[in-house]
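We append the chain.
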Amino acid sequence: MTTHADRTDTQSAQRSVAFADDATLSEISGHLGHLTASARQRTANYSRHAAQLWDQLGERLATGKLARPGLVMLGYEAFGGRNRRRALDLACAFELLHNALIIHDDIIDRDFLRRGAPTISAVYRDEASGYGRSRTDAEHVGNSAALIAGDLLLTEAIKVAARAAAGLDNEEQVEACFFQAIEQAGAGELEDLLYSLHPHPATTADVLHMEELKTAAYSFQLPLQAGALLAGADALQAQLLGAIGSKLGVAYQVIDDVLGTFGDPQDTGKPVDSDLREFKSTILLSLAAENPGFAVLLQEFRAGNVAAQEVRQAMAEQDAEAFARQLARQLCTSATRSAAFLRLPEDAQYRLHHCTRLILERSW
């Protein structure tokens, strides 16, 4: 089981990539550890296996970058919020939600590696293999356990988010914001899945909309917006801050697409052929597919006649990565200009500028 010292070491490694200062990261990490330990203790009263699953979840939650909680705290502090316990509950609710979604995403993508370590699916798959189950049956067991794990995290996230807003005048607005994060993430995931069935990648406009739903909403827009609402910002102020977050979130996902194809697996913790293998409509593919020759090559790849490396090489020759990175820079520039227009406190503007640097320069 992950210890407090382990979490502190992990936190130190995160400081260059998190969207909050060290003191806030420490608060978030400690509160998250308390929530998961409490969940484990409750379940241990009636299920040894469920308690062991929470051990697995606690270890993974302790190694996250805490970007979404950091953005909740940014939005909360930007509008003068003072109740730290409420803010930490809401911040951790978004982190619990994030981990639920990535566990389910790994099932959908058939990935067994996340952050350079075996996923929940992989852990239970290997346990089933140890009992002599076939590969197919073992993977089914692993994915089933992961599905349950994601559901448990999602339930805990909803409960903690509701507690954060309980009794406030705008309780319904804060809760609606959190539920919107769940709904839009689900819608984006569904679009991502169904686009992979099409013979051609989705258009650039469709991919950007899908990424806005799948990633930007729950990862950037709504953490900032919910944090602002929790602090007492009016609906319009919170919405404007959320719009800034949406641009940052799309930029983040665009860079994620780049790293998912051209990144170093040692840094990203994921294989570089995952998106291609699943026929995902990424911004890279949508840009490259505007060239008729590439569209033909992609069809050959999907027919099994061309290797993934050849597809990556063709995208590189068309400067798809450069175009994608330029798009991300434009989105970040627009976001920071909007932050100045909103006249956020100087510290909040600085932190949003810091977010853009982390997004554009990251290799993980």
Notes: Residues 1-17 have pLDDT under 50 and may be disordered. The beta strands are 113-114, 117-118. The chain has 17 helices and two strands. The two ends are 25 Å apart (CA to CA).
